[in-house]
Protein 1
Amino acid sequence: MVNVYKSFGSREVLKNICLDVRRGEILSVIGPSGAGKTTLLKLMNLLLNPDRGKIFFDGVDTDVDEKQRRALRRKMGMVFQHPALFDTTVFNNVALGLMIRGFHKEEIEKRVEDALRYVGLKGFAKRKASSLSAGEAQRVSLARALVLEPKLLLLDEPTANLDPGNALQIEETIRRVNSERGGHGRSCYT
């Protein structure tokens, strides 16, 4: 990210931001509410375009057509502060991205089972998402991102409003993912 600016109307939210997240790095962005942390993550995830400046992902300029932007976004995972789960099973929520990408049934089942075990929710696949606690729902949201094996994992206050046990589980999962993937991925928290 080089010299990035972002405004909403007359309110300048980000000004001259330069940021480099390297492979294997876990980066936390800290600031008060309204400081632009979520806007920064949405720019990094290509959900928003900067008003000025450049954003690169794996050395590729992201100022490209929408089809190419979608291809770049498929290499990223995003976990929002408030998980948006579908009113179906935990399995279907975690498997959605794999289904959209056309993975075979056997691969989907293996990856979902592994992702749920990774976030401490082994045995939850058949549960309805609507029956989950806030912490469990956030862990399902994290599993949904991890199952796609993203090169860049963006987390927008993933432990906000969670009990200490669920917050610790999420933090430990992020550290373990980073460690076990041998520095092949990147993570950015707000």
Protein 2
Amino acid sequence: MSKKWGLAIILLLGIGGIILVFLHPTKKRPGLDSVVNLGIGLARDVDTIGQTLARVSDEEEIKVGQEIVQEILSHYRIITNTPRARYLQAVGQTLTPQVNRKKITYQFYIVQYDDINAFAVAGGHIFITSGMLQFLRTESELVLILGHEIGHIDLRHCIELVQYELFLKKIGLDDLKMVARIGYELIRRGFSEKQELEADKYGLEMVIKTQYHPKAALNIFGRMSDIFPEPEKSKPDTVIDEITQILKDALEDYIATHPALEKRLDILGEMVAQRKADWQGRTFYIGRANYEQTLARETTKYPKEWEEVK
């Protein structure tokens, strides 16, 4: 609901910006990008207000999460009762004591899917693809990914995807099955750039709190940026092309899912650099052997996996 209003604000201010750019009586015309950016700011304010009004309880979130999981299970094959599945549960459950919302119980699932991906569902459900598990190399990298997804739940990003539908349900305009289907579709589209960066920070903090090595973050996004390079944008040829590109970029920014990998790598690099003085001389766990042998650090610690931050 508020997302639609937000898009309308951006489009209206974008059109207004075009009029100002071409009809402004002075030579010093206002920049279209500044007008559109104002629209983005107003749209996000609308989102914030709407999310506050539609806020639901943890108990309600758990119920809708269970329904969304059933929807997911109808689309994907879940791998269970394998050494890797048991390992994932073991590692995941060692992280859950760190969460802030204690009423949420977490479950971890392996999805049989070749793509490198992981996603979270409201109510404490974390899904990681078999492709992602093949991509990862150490337990510390797994902790970062799981911490990132836990962050989406703990920071209420997941439930915010469907809060408006739940709000409508309370006044008789929807049912839980419909909310589950909508929630599934919204999960496929992903979170905003702001939310993704918040979850990156949360994941890094989870790594540090549990004494895993912070370089895991840089390793993961460094390898991902090599595999998935960002396409270069072509320069606009005309004023109309430039206006079109500005509006397109603004809309993409507003409804963005994952931010550019290079941007995430840069921001995480800055986080690590800022905190490095606090970590120097301390030892953190890497867990390459644990990951290869599917033995969680909680049960099997390898002395050689501890590495000092220099």
Protein 3
Amino acid sequence: MKTDCSTERLNFGRLGRRRVVADFDGGDVTSDAGALLLREADLGSGLMSRFADCFTDFRNPDLIEHSVTDLVRQRVFAIALGYEDVNDHDTLRLDALVATAVGKTDPTGARRARAADQGSPLAARSTLNRLERTPANASAASRYRKIVYHGDAIDELLVDFFLDSARKPPEEIILDLDATDDRIHGNQEGRFYHGYYDHYCYLPLYIFCGDHLLCARLRPANIDGSAGSVEELERIVPRIRERWPETRIIIRADSGFARESIMQWCESNDVDYVLGLARNSRLTERLRATLERAKRRSEKSDQAERLFLDFYYSTLDTWSRKRRVIGKAEHLQGKSNPRFIVTSLNRRRARGQHLYETIYCARGDMENRIKEQQLDLFADRTSTQTMRGNQLRLYFTSIAYVLINVVRRLGLRGTHMARAQAGTIRKTLFKIGAVVKVSVRRVAVHISSTCPYRPLIEICLKNLRAGASMAR
């Protein structure tokens, strides 16, 4: 990456008879050589072109140097590479390797129209900022902000990309729903204080199927955690059934989603559910005898013991019917730990213990996916003024997650990193230093001969190309 740093030599003392010196005359060096793997994943899947199709560009085509596809690739690739802010692009725009990954045929920016832009092949933060802040009603008559995103189209893309990833319809899928806090520090639109989290935040809703992201909906925090779930299911489930009519669908979530409206919708639409159920005095009393048995066993074995009780239950006034509940009577460390789930699955489909331990508890993996979104891909960088702008930022991080998941699911298949998190993949495969030399005929990327991840990179590239060939 080009810099304006001084070329004055730095002295780091001596190593035996040798002096250790450093300078800043290494030429075009990138720290992101692994962006080429993102390029392969994108070219094979067509993700970024499909994402760009979710925008309407009202700019004059004769005056455009950065297409919508260029802009969204630049923004999404940068997030995947660890650059969380548009401010980072004032330096990143100089990187010939990232420009190559984005698809710029002039990766050094030598042919830019304005002399001031020459040497900068990619868009600056001002252009990307206008992209994020374009209002929904922008048109060709707007002065600066003319690229409008269509949230409905992006929502459909997330579901369709998941459906396209399967070679054949699965017999059964589980949709995981969860809400999380997205802490905010300014006066953004939709800012509310959440008592449970004890800070001002948004309350985004996520829906995953395994490691596939199907929904990332930004919401204000002054709502119930399950709010909007039925609307999202009404959108997603019919789209799945249109492609996979024989696939059984189960939704899974914690007790914050054990709401009559959700359960009733599932029962009316042939969708099963396995939901956590908040304990209360009636549930605990129903489990009391089983808890006593677990306690006696624990005292005798001197270790944790758990038993399960399968029964039917209804609330006094909020549920429309009795539903199957599994109670876990656990005794550990001298105290009882009763837990409950409610389900539409009958006893022929799944025994209570299996339903709790194998099916319900597996929802914990979804929390790792949300952590990837927020900790590795900066989904909590919702610091622009409007909800619409912050939803677009959430879409950018979501598409970055989907792209990295292509690398993980296809490129790293069969390797020790097949289940690695986004941050680990970035550190291992993307953040690789290299010297970049651009000539008339090629872009040569010179990676260290001692790179310890060379075999993994070679396998990943081979797998991505094989996956793209099979998709075609």
